[in-house]
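Support reply, case 0932

Customer input (verbatim):
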Amino acid sequence: ASASAVLGNTTIKVTSPNLDPFTSPTATLSVRPARAALPVQGPVRRLAQASSGAWITTDGAFDSATGQYQYQVTRVSASGQALTSASAPGSTSMRLISTGGGVLAVSTDGPVVATLVSDAGAITILPTPQLGGVAAMSPSTDSQGRVWFVRRTDNAGAATYSMNTWTPATGAVTPVTLSLAGVSSFYGNQNFFFSPNRQQLVFIAPGYPGLIYRIDTATQQATKVDTTVQASSAAISDNGALWLSAYNTLSRVNADGTVTQFDGVSTGQLTGFDLSSSTTLWGQDTSGVYRVDVSVAKPTSTFISLGNVTGAALNASGGLLTVWSETYTGASSISLVK
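Our regenerated output:
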């Protein structure tokens, strides 16, 4: 396919007098984006948005000199070039949290270990923050430079949850007034979804129907979204347009609080609004990514099939940077999908 070929899946039909009558005459043709090999050893395990390119990390190695596992944290371009690389201590649960001017490498299983890596590659080992048991954590800092997280507290065999913010620059941990009563657990899905300017945040607590909050990060004012619509992921624009997704249904929360549902619009887990187009949503699943046009009366979704998708991050100049491989243990590649 040429570089200008339209990405996505197309059903083609083959006609021939010699076609086996017991063979289906149709097949699916997948047009994939260009990809570049990544300059790392082994499969990529974590991915985060960067001010240019994307941050990635691979499996760590034990360093006998320090008695810790060390993980290589690398900022890569869409063409697969290493822009920045640094070694950070951590664990298999290490999270990469975008800060806008760098990335936080944070491990929370056991004693919290937090390292700040700047875009230029400078490393700062942060004082151990008093986070407590972390049940969920935002994938980036907000416009005030804070990380949002849910703290789990166990008492007499029962778990309760509370919302907090952590300011890496000062180490301050501040509680947020937001009720998580009735939430029984947190599991693998992402729970925090920022607007492109990181001034607005949507938080989804799991459950049926679960809890959905819209948060002004400047004031920390949280407003519950009163809806029975099930949501496993969300996206919010800079002007507050809120979209929810679950089970092949995309929903728009209207200004008056009502919800308009669009059945049959697949998005995977929503990644967010394109950083150069306020009418394009991006989503991802384990085998590809979704480009969703919300400028039309009924949103339209295009699925771009890839392979084994590790993760995706919004590209600073538009589009979606996606890390994927042919197999789970295969070499990782990066593609810029537009």
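We compared this against your earlier run and they match. Two observations from our side: The radius of gyration is 21 Å. The longest strand covers residues 158-167. Please reopen the case if you see a mismatch on your end.
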